[in-house]
Write a structure and sequence with these properties.
It is built from 10 helices and 15 strands. It has helices spanning 21-29, 37-44, 58-73, 99-106, 124-138, 161-164, 220-242, 259-268, 280-283, 290-300, and strands spanning 4-13, 17-20, 48-51, 82-86, 114-118, 143-151, 169-179, 184-191, 199-200, 204-206, 209-211, 217-218, 251-254, 309-316, 320-327. It binds coenzyme A.
Length: 328
C-alpha cells in the first residue's frame, strides 16, 4: 500500500546564454536606461541570469531537465504516468495544447499518460508537487514527472529597469513515485486573488492579437512586503501538520526571487543562513523553475542527502503561496 510520495530523481537545465549584470547594464545603456551591477546585486542578490534563444520554448528547457531527472531516477520516459508542468510562459501563450502535452510528445511518451499545466506563477512548482503528492497518495498515479519551466525573458519589458533586471529563463524537474516511506511529509497551498494587480501580465488574446499589455508588471515594494509576511507563516503551518520542529529542517529551499526576502524568511524561522540553498545569484528569478533548479543543484553537489528534511516554499503572482516539507 502506497502511503507516501517520494522524490526519486532531480534534474535541471539552464540555456547556455549567460548575461551578467554588467553586460545587461551595457545593453540597457544603449537605450538610455541606467542601471548597474551594484544596484541590481545590492537590491536582489542577482549577479547573472540565463536567456533562452528566440527559437527555444519552455517545453525545450523542460525536456532537457526532465531527461536528467528521469536518468537520476533510473526510469524510462514511458514509465511516467502523469506529467504536471508549472509555467507562466507556456509554449502557446493564451492557447493550447498545454506545454505538458508538448513535453510528453517531445519525450517520446506513448503510453497515454495524463499531462497538464499548472498556473500559479512563482508558486507553480509548489502547487504542482502538492497536486502530484495527492494523486500518488490516492493511488491514481505511480510515477509523476513534476516540472517547472519558464522563458520569462519573453514577457520582460526591457524598457522597464525595475523588472527586467530581475528575471531569467530555466527549468527544473523531479520524478515523484509511490513509497511506503516518507516522502512528502506535508504541504499547504494558499491564494489571495485580491492582490492580483501587484504582479501580473494583464494582456489577453482577442481577435487573433494580443489585447492590452503582454509584459510583466510588478509593484516591487508591495510584492516584497507581502512575500516576507506570508513565507515563514506557511512554512510553520506545514511544520505543524507534519509535527516537525523548525530545528529539524536540514535545508530551506525558498523560491529564488530576492536574497533579502529569502534571508528574512530564514531568520524568522530561526534557521542559520548556511541551511538555505541560494541560486538566485546565478539564475535570477526563474519563477516556477527556481525551486527545482535550486533543489537539483544542491542534490548534485552533495549538500542535500537522503533522509534529510527539506522545506521548499514559494510565493508569486495571483497572489499565491505555499510550502512543501520533504524527507529526501
Ligand atoms: C524590485 C526591488 C528589487 C526594488 O527594490 P527597492 O529597494 O524596493 O527599490 P525601489 O523600488 O524603492 O526603487 C529605488 C530606486 O531605484 C530605482 N531603480 C529601480 N530599478 C532600478 C535599476 N534596475 N537600476 C537602478 N535603479 C533602479 C527606482 O527608480 C528608485 O529610484 P527613485 O528613488 O529615484 O525613485 C524590490 O522591491 C523587490 O525585490 N521586490 C520584490 C520582487 C520580487 O521578489 N518579485 C518576485 C516575487 S515572486
Amino acid at each position: 500500500m502506497t502511503s507516501y510520495s517520494k522524490i526519486v530523481g532531480t534534474g535541471s537545465y539552464l540555456p547556455p546564454k549567460r548575461v551578467t549584470n554588467d553586460e545587461l547594464a551595457q545593453q540597457l545603456a544603449k537605450k538610455g536606461i541606467e542601471t548597474s551591477d551594484e544596484w541590481i546585486f545590492s537590491r536582489s542578490g542577482i549577479s547573472a541570469r540565463h536567456y533562452a534563444e528566440a527559437d527555444v520554448l519552455s517545453s525545450d528547457l523542460a525536456v532537457a531537465a526532465s531527461q536528467r531527472a528521469l536518468q537520476a531516477a533510473g526510469l524510462q520516459a514511458n514509465d511516467i504516468d502523469l506529467i504536471i508542468l508549472a509555467t507562466s510562459t507556456p509554449d502557446h501563450f493564451g492557447g493550447f495544447p498545454s506545454t505538458a502535452c508538448v513535453v510528453q510528445r517531445k519525450l517520446g511518451i506513448t503510453n497515454g499518460s495524463a499531462a497538464m499545466d499548472v498556473q500559479a506563477v512563482c508558486s507553480g512548482f509548489i502547487y504542482a508537487m502538492s497536486v502530484a503528492d495527492s494523486f500518488i497518495k490516492s493511488g491514481m498515479y505511480k510515477n509523476v514527472l513534476v516540472i517547472g519551466a519558464e522563458v520569462f525573458s519573453r514577457i520582460l519589458n526591457f524598457d522597464d529597469r525595475t523588472t527586467c533586471v530581475l528575471f531569467g529563463d530555466g527549468a527544473g524537474a523531479i520524478v515523484m513515485t509511490g513509497s511506503k516511506e516518507p516522502g512528502i511529509l506535508a504541504s499547504k497551498l494558499h491564494a489571495d486573488g485580491s492582490h492580483g494587480h501587484i504582479l501580473c501580465v494583464p494582456g489577453n488574446v482577442n481577435d487573433g492579437a494580443i489585447a492590452g499589455n503582454a509584459y510583466l508588471y510588478m509593484d516591487g515594494p508591495a510584492v516584497f512586503k507581502l512575500a516576507v509576511s506570508v513565507l515563514d507563516k506557511v512554512a510553520r503551518e506545514v511544520l505543524e501538520i507534519a509535527q516537525v520542529d523548525a530545528r529539524e529542517i536540514d535545508w530551506l529551499i525558498p523560491h529564488q526571487a530576492n536574497i533579502r526576502i529569502m534571508q528574512s524568511t530564514a531568520k524568522k524561522l530561526g534557521l542559520p543562513l548556511e541551511k538555505m540553498v541560494v541560486t538566485v545569484d546565478e539564475h535570477g528569478n526563474t519563477s516556477a523553475a527556481s525551486i527545482p533548479l535550486a533543489l537539483d543543484q544542491a542534490v548534485r553537489d552533495g549538500r542535500v542527502k537522503p533522509g534529510q528534511n527539506v522545506m521548499m516554499e514559494g510565493v508569486g503572482g495571483g497572489f499565491t503561496w505555499g510550502a512543501v516539507l520533504v524527507r529526501m
